[in-house]
Design a protein that fits this description.
Two copies of one chain form a homodimer. Helices cover 43% and strands 16% of the residues of chain A. With 349 residues, chain A is α/β, with parallel strands linked by helices. Chain A has two domains: 150 residues, Isopropylmalate Dehydrogenase (3-Layer(aba) Sandwich), CATH 3.40.718; 190 residues, 3-Layer(aba) Sandwich (Isopropylmalate Dehydrogenase). The first copy, chain A, has an eleven-stranded mixed sheet with strand order 3-2-1-4-11-10-5-6-9-7-8, sandwiched between helices.
Chain lengths: 349, 349
Amino acid sequence: MTTAGTVRIAVDAMGGDRAPGAIVEGVIEARKAYGARMVVVGLPEAVQPLLRNHPGLDFVGASEVIEVDDPPLESVRAKRGASINVCARLARQGDVDAWVSAGNSGAVMAAALLLQGRLRGVERPALGAVFPTLAGGAVYYLDVGINVDCGPALLCQFARMGAVYAREILGRDRPRIALLSNGSEPGKGDWLRREAYARLQQTGVNFIGNIEGPEIFTGKADVVVTDGFLGNVAAKMAEGTAEFLFQVLREEIPRTWTGKLAGLLVRPRVQQIRARFDWREHGGAPLLGINGVVVVAHGRSDAHAIASAIRAARDAVTGALVARIQDSLLDQSTTEGPRATQENSPVSQ
Amino acid sequence: MTTAGTVRIAVDAMGGDRAPGAIVEGVIEARKAYGARMVVVGLPEAVQPLLRNHPGLDFVGASEVIEVDDPPLESVRAKRGASINVCARLARQGDVDAWVSAGNSGAVMAAALLLQGRLRGVERPALGAVFPTLAGGAVYYLDVGINVDCGPALLCQFARMGAVYAREILGRDRPRIALLSNGSEPGKGDWLRREAYARLQQTGVNFIGNIEGPEIFTGKADVVVTDGFLGNVAAKMAEGTAEFLFQVLREEIPRTWTGKLAGLLVRPRVQQIRARFDWREHGGAPLLGINGVVVVAHGRSDAHAIASAIRAARDAVTGALVARIQDSLLDQSTTEGPRATQENSPVSQ
């Protein structure tokens, strides 16, 4: 186990809408802010010129790039020298403690699975996201889109891994786990929700029942469990509605002179409020269930979002997230409260 | 077929959070605005005192009430004198052309099914909602929560019925039908979406492919098709996000004196904008696939929302919505464009 000062993190400079410029800027920002040892991975001709004035950053070359629309598994297999594969290989060899990519998230998952493997007992890795709550807190929401077809057993595994994330990373003593559904009563939901509800009561997590979408923002739950299809549609609906409303307000309010004046007066405050709901502040979250720390950043990440994703990777390493998840999956009782550190976990080396 | 002036509409005065007061007020508002002949249905002791100064309203007594938490099918069978059953019976007997309820929506569907029946070829009736778009238009979204477990064939039927709604009620010549999914590419979605996508291409509707949640507001599609579980969660997510943001803005902006001033200046405009996204403006929508016009209003309906729901019922009657849906289901080619009126439709009497 490494200590905070020596955490080594590889970053895929080729992934994301604004790669490689914004990615390298994010690495520079994170290095200043968090002091981790950073390894930038990418095509030499594209990335090395950006690193010239930053001798403190390491560079590892890649020979190709997996594009955002490439078929994940096939491209990970075919493009062996791709930056995503190089990152995963550095992690498997122990050259870095974690890696971060804003690229093709399916390919990130495929590379992590093929090269680093899953933890014992993990059916499929999951990807969560941290959302803000009304009171200024945070809620962990998974799966956010990696696992599109899920059964009830998989949702229970998401609940278990999410509980560990909430405890180790968000600092919740006894995380409250809720199931995203179309009503709060036990009988609500489609067959998958009804079946998962019954099983979650026997999973050993602190299951508080169904939760409706808007309640996520109230902070009623610490972890919200959903399949990746519903989770993705619902998350985009929230994000899209917010963007839509801010756009309408920005366009419509300045149409009168009082509106123009009011808009000027209030703009800094509205921008502060918007920032609180900005996904870039929670720029990435680790894949749960992988034998290593792999952080998937938003494809639209700018430098600040990349820095946040790097912080998430560092927190996962220093919080020994992977070992804790393995403990939880091997010992069902451990999700109910804090426990002693297990130094010789089979997966923490 | 009745003409606009003589449409007769029964309204369940016992359904909804604010029944019976707000319901009766809504009936009064609608009668003034739309001139339909209104029949108020409810418990005599609760409703008749409210009607004393309104001699133009008819009253039909009910002997009991189905509560919002009652099991739908069982309570419709057990409470034969319930206001919902009385409304459905009035419609079956031809005493009214349509009925409206803000009560238990499952019970409304059960009563409509048991007493009025479904159209030929309808597997399960659907319930849609009209959402506003950025440009000030409207999009029809179904199913919004009645059918929780759906197969691909049912989604195709929703598409067909939704196309008729968009043509006859929203006035779209060749309604663009989209499938709610987690991405716009054809391969996106869970198994239900992938299967429905393939079938929708052969359904004879103007299928434009997958649509992501936020795109609904852009007006890219006229009809958005989804199963009732996803549809309900996604709709609540949009509604909840909007309420949440307005609440945060209202609480946080007045914390500084410039914010207070700006808030006062801008309040009337913000309220106008909010009203555009207010579900109460689109207070109800008809159950599609029932042999009759039955409008389900939002459980939180106030008087204005009830009046909007009554308008929706009137529009469905004058637009011969039921006959058009039957035509469309019996003749697959009819969804592709405008067609001649079919005077002797088996269901239009």
